[in-house]
Amino acid sequence: MKIGIDQIGFATSNYVLKLDHLAEERGIDPNKLSKGLLMKEISIAPLTEDIVTLGATAAEQILTVEDKQVIDMVIVATESSIDQSKAASVFIHGLLGIQPFARSFEMKEACYAGTAALDYAKLHIKQYPESKVLVIASDIAKYGIEAPGEPTQGAGAIAMLISQNPRILEFNDDNVAQTRDIMDFWRPNYSTTPYVNGVYSTQQYLDCLETTWKEYQKRHGLALADFAAVCFHLPYPKLALKGLNKIMDQSLSQEEQRKLQENFDKSILYSQKVGNIYTGSLFLGLLSLLENSENLKAGDKIALFSYGSGAVAEIFSANLVEGYEKQLTTHRLEQLNQRQELTVATYEELFFAEAQLDENGSAVFSGYDDQVYALVQIDQHQRKYIKVEKPS
Ligand code: CAA
Q: What positions does the domain Hydroxymethylglutaryl-coenzyme A synthase N-terminal occupy (predicted)?
């Protein structure tokens, strides 16, 4: 049975910070961000936009009324959870109006959990071929003002509908995972921002890539030449470029190497404008590749490298389905260019705002008219979401 990604949707916030402005304000050379990290812009989410609203918005783009009657599992992968107990997927299940006899839960292992969610979805569909699973990877990456990771922050969600006979990508059963108990990046329950051993995290990312890739090749007898493209987890694109260079097979022809590089360049286009969206970053790279590459064709095999600090890494592959391009959009970059630009001062205010709860644990929010879904209030510690009515 063929199982894979039938549809992919993406949502980000409506605000953007240009990194040239951030560099100027922080007194650093803009080339450090544009060339050193390969970053251009980052999406900034206000209080009314969180992993639930972003996830629901991404899913809304791809689901039909029929899908909502068939989906029997909703998984949200996140590392910026809004509740220690209730899963974001339960809110999203309700907002989207998915039929009630479904499982909804959250998965966590830093940026890796989206891949674990796909693995679980695949197993579920193997057992129940008629079912469909909604996998959402949704995160707001916040490092803090003047933190080394500040230019790599971001906000966004990827929604993937997983089914048999998918129309975009068919998974191959070739996953190879690796776990290492390390402290490269973590966020204790009492902290709103992560603790990061930055340089160490980059070394671990690259070493996990190299060792997992070696094991993957050994187990499956595959070489880089078998792949049309490699997608990487994208904490910032420059690290992934180092990853590509690390696994590049020098015995490939110049033409083959050029093609892999060209597809890599297409895979980072969205992340360069959105920033790190943690669990969704790998799949934002995949979407960027599929929507912008000019040399992919049905049957091409794409490798995916997932990395979550802590750390878990996984490499797997999927093949493009005939007609995949009909399921995608071509105006994503234009849409990103329509986000409202923020000054550095407004970004600091908006991104790091905390809800000011009264003595009953309540607060009412405003300014969400341009969102699709919004957090409109916290009422006695309960988050209240709506689908925003648009004037007809
Ligand atoms: N012109 C061009 N390039 C310049 C430059 C200039 N004027 N000034 C500096 N650079 C280059 C540097 O040479 C460096 O390039 P190399 O990596 O090729 O050496 C690059 O810009 C970055 O500069 P620094 O090494 O000085 O590092 P930094 O202070 O900007 O911090 C970072 C980089 C540690 C990665 C920081 O962004 C960070 O902590 N990020 C968060 C952690 C992270 O993303 N880790 C990735 C692996 S963990 C993971 O993948 C999970 C996850 O999503 C978080």
A: 18-164
